[in-house]
Design goal:
- The protein is mainly alpha-helical.
- The chain contains 6 helices and 5 strands; from the N terminus they run H-H-H-H-E-H-E-E-H-E-E.
- Strands 1-2-3 form a 3-stranded mixed β-sheet.
- Helix 2 runs parallel beside helix 6 and helix 4 runs parallel beside helix 5.
- It is globular.
């Protein structure tokens, strides 16, 4: 069987294109372009985009042994922290969609990789919804349980799940450094991209 050089190049090219397509589908490798106007919605969206960018790079390239790393003082492992941030991203998205956080629903069990991708996609969708919104009072944080519903204004969404997720993304950065696998040193959170 004879394989030509051009066939090998074509196969290699398709493989690289598939890898690039997979990478491109995971949001926040760079921070999206800023809105031209400052509104309540665009400011909240930008906070979410900043979180998405930080989380993308905090979790990029984690090894299996990193996921089990914990500070040794009964703190969360990196894997448990990723799970917690995933839950926070659902709360952020539900506020953007004006949906309750149903604590009676059975949660689907996802792998850490699936949680990472869903978290980033949740943040991207929430950001887009907030950019388009003109009434922040409609975006309450609502908890539904067997006892009923409790609603909180979006102010609690800012100092609650959004800021908490930023806090925990920073914890992942510190924990992975302690585990011997620091984040990409080219990450520039001020500019929202990678330094050349």
């Amino acid at each position: 069987m004879k394989i030509t050089f051009s066939t090998i190049l074509m196969i290699l090219g398709l493989s690289l294109q598939a890898q690039n397509t997979m990478t491109d589908t995971i949001p926040y490798s760079i921070i999206p372009e800023a809105a031209t106007d400052y509104t309540a919605g665009t400011v909240i969206a930008r906070m979410i985009d900043g979180l998405g960018f930080r989380y993308h790079w905090a979790t990029e390239g984690l090894r299996q042994e990193d996921l089990a790393y914990a500070p040794g003082n009964d703190g969360r492992t990196i894997e448990q922290t990723i799970d917690h941030i995933y839950t926070l991203s659902e709360m952020i998205l539900n506020a953007a969609k004006k949906l309750p956080n149903d604590r009676t629903a059975v949660k689907e069990k996802l792998s850490t990789t699936q949680q990472r991708i869903k978290t980033l996609n949740n943040l991207k969708e929430a950001s887009a919804l907030f950019v388009a919104s003109t009434d922040m009072k409609a975006h309450n944080i609502v908890f539904k349980s067997e006892k009923g519903e409790a609603a909180f204004p979006l102010w609690n969404g800012i100092n609650g799940p959004i800021e908490d997720a930023i806090w925990h993304a920073g914890q992942i950065v510190v924990l992975r450094r302690a585990a011997g696998n620091p984040i990409n040193p080219k990450v520039n959170v001020f500019l929202g991209n990678l330094n050349e």
